[in-house]
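Feature request, filed as a ticket because there's no other form

It would be nice if the structure record came with a short human-readable summary line next to the tokens. Right now we just get the raw output. Example of a typical job, pasted below so the devs can see what we mean:
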Amino acid sequence: MLPEVRTHVSSTLARQLEHQLGLTPHLDAGSLDMEGVVGIAVLAAAHSDGYAATSHLLGLLAALPAPTKAGERFWSDLWRSSGTAYLLPVNIKAPVLRSLAGGGTDLARQILSAVDEMTPPQRIAAGEVIGQALAESDHLPDLKTQVIGELWLRDLELTAWRILHADSRSDDPAGRKAFIDVWTSV
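Raw output as currently delivered:
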């Protein structure tokens, strides 16, 4: 479940291409030499962490019961156990769809808000509900449902953080130089 990459969503990468390589958004690809192609590949790889994390986040959500009539009980139980409505399909539908188009930051923020809102007992209860659903769908009856659910929640939380972290990395040349200066002086 890879997100679609669109140029309007990858504005940070576009700014980097323009700043680092002097490439304009409407540059004819035929005018690129090998060095330009390599430069684009290097910058794209540097920005790929956010796309990979967004794809993983969508995969985690896809592992849950679908938000259909058949999955209604799961989502109701998750809401009651977690104490938060942030994870309900009606509330995450728009961020999920934006994530499919390549922009995962809204979904990541909403997920982190939901996890932050849960008390420790609510997190345990939500983990149990999630773990039960995953154990049934993945045919893992030997594993404790609460452990499966807690691992899923940790992965969800960490992946959301990775998306926000990847999005917030600065392309500030002065900051980069300061970083290099500090590390070379050690």
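Something like this underneath would help us a lot:
The radius of gyration is 20 Å.
The mean pLDDT is 83.
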